[in-house]
Amino acid sequence: QVQLVESGGGLVQPGGSLRLSCAASGRAVASYMLGWFRGIPGKEREFVAGINWSGEESYYGDSMKGRVAISRDKVKNVVYLHMNNLKPDDTAVYYCVANRFYGESRYYKDFSSWGQGTQVTVSS
After folding, report:
1. Per-residue pLDDT for 89 more than 90?
2. Would you give the DSSP letter of residue 85?
3. CA distance 16 to 2
4. Were 20 and a residue from 75, 76, 81, 99 both cysteine, which residue would form a disulfide, CB within 3.0 to 4.6 Å?
5. Is the Cβ–Cβ distance between 2 and 113 less than 8 Å?
6. pLDDT at position 82 over 90
7. CB neighbourhood size of 91 (10 A)
């Protein structure tokens, strides 16, 4: 498995932007699809975005599509989630995740490695 550590969460005003970072480490990290989910109390964890090791293939969930972009720095082993035009409904804990066997999955149970999460609060 890989180890994942998120950073970059915080408080942002509606319409603002934020960049989350995820440092990945461990054996065979290059074999993993990395991505982001978000967790809102009372709701199932929601897929946000995913990217393969080369960074050439990315895919997005419906909830934030058009307002987020995922990127990957292979040298630093860091994945970024760039979020724009944030709304109060985007308030959630954002988790970095890794999946080795399920390709471009959007199902949270297919992701075997999870970071501790970083809180994003969108409020004026």
Report:
1. yes
2. S
3. 31
4. 81
5. yes
6. yes
7. 16
Residue with tokens 């319409």: 15
The structure tokens listed for 20 are 């989350």
Kindly tell me the sign of the dihedral angle through the C-alpha atoms of 85, 19, 56, 117. Answer: negative
Handedness of CA 63, 47, 119, 8 (dihedral sign): negative
Q: Is 58 exposed, middle or buried (0-12, 13-18, 19+ CB in 10 A)?
A: middle
Measure the CA–CA gap between 105 and 108, rounded to whole angstroms: 8
Give residue for tokens 């999946």: 99
- 102 Cβ neighbours under 8 A, 6+ residues apart: 33, 110, 111
Maximum Cα interatomic distance, the chain, rounded to a whole number of Å: 42
